[in-house]
Structures are given as structure tokens and as C-alpha cells.
């Protein structure tokens, strides 16, 4: 077990060291998509974005966290749902048409998913470079990674959103885009959003572990193997 952990760790380290630009750019791109695409979608399908602000209470957060008068359990319960900043659009009929808030938990999820995707793509490219004829698994891995990156955004794994008078304060962006749906349908979309987030996160973690294992073997000079355990042909052998 420990050897497997060391092999995966070495594989990830080698891939990140060889492809730091891929890690950085993919991480930044996925983070930007998670953060900016939901307000962009709502601007197109609802009302144009016309307001952005950071939570004006944030300067008081350090004092809240170090206060001995507030129980630790209450702080831990409060912090994940704290809105850091939000986007919104005014309704032509008065009030707010839509809002998109990013909480501490949302930001943590965005950063975690973004970094995982960055490492994932670095591993895929690293394995492709070292074993071009290891082939099918790497090609599927890269295609699956691209699909997963978009699924994490367009699969509506977004944070808290509100609509004036909708009666359902926590909605995925698709629910906001079609807020005329019934409350039951909106609740289902919100549940599916949470499930999609977990599925995408687990899939990327499994992908990182799998390609980290492959990369750890390739970095140590071990030939890639097929599903039946036989070595895959290298370019030299194929020639």
C-alpha cells in the first residue's frame, strides 16, 4: 500500500515538475469558468449583470474568528456559508432579478477542482510524452478530463443563488435561468447539482490517482502495461 502511495506521489511530482505551465493555465482556466460563467449565463438568459460587491462585513471576520465569546462550533458552522462576494442584476420591475453569491465553501470547491484538473492534465500529457503508444487510456483520459472540466461548470455545480420571490434561495444556475419551473423541479435541479459536484470531484481524484500510478511507473523506467498485464509496445519495438 505504501509503495503504491509513493509511486503515485512520485508520478504526480514528476508530471507537475515537467508541465508546470499546464498546471497553472488549466487551474486558472477552470477557476475562471467556475467563477465567471454562471453570471455570464444569467446575463444572457435573464437580465444583464449590473452590480458586484465584496461582503462589507469581511473586515470584521478576523475579530469574529479570534473572539473567545463565540463557541468554536458556531464559528465552524458559520464560516462555510459566509458569502465573500456576489454578482446581481436589477429587475426591470424593481428589486433584484437574480443574484450569484460565492461563499467560503464555494471558493474552496472552485480552487480544489481547478487544481485537481490542472494536475490531471499535466499527468495525461506527461504519460503521453513518455509512452506515446500507451495510447488509448491517455487519449480517453484527456477527453474525459475536458468533459469533466466543463461538467464541473455547465453541470451546474455552482454556489448559492437567489431570485426575488422565487421561494428557493439555493439554486443551480440552470434553475435560475428557468426560474418559472415548479418548486419541485427547482429542488430536484439543486439536488442534482450537488450530486454532480461530488461525482465530478471523485472522478477527477480517481483520474489523478490512476495517471499518477502510470506516471510513477514510467518515471521509474517501468514499461506501461495493458489490462492483461502484458507490456504495451514502445515506439522502438513498433519500428
3D structure, described in words:
The chain is an alpha+beta fold and 239 residues long. It has one domain (2-223). Helix content is 62%, strand content 9%. The chain contains nine helices and four strands. Helix 1 (2-18) packs across helix 5 (104-130) and helix 2 (20-45) runs parallel beside helix 6. The chain is globular.
Shape: globular
Distance between the ends: 37 Å
Q: Label the structural class.
A: alpha+beta
**CA-based gyration radius:** 22 Å
Q: What's the story with the biggest beta sheet?
A: 4 strands, antiparallel
Number of domains: 1
Portion of residues in helices?
55-70%
Strand order of the largest sheet: 1-2-3-4
Strand content: 5-15%
Task: Give me the strand/helix succession.
Answer: HHEHHEEHHEHHH
Strands, total number? 4
SS field, number of helical segments: 9
Overall pLDDT confidence: 74
Low-pLDDT segments: 153-172, 232-239
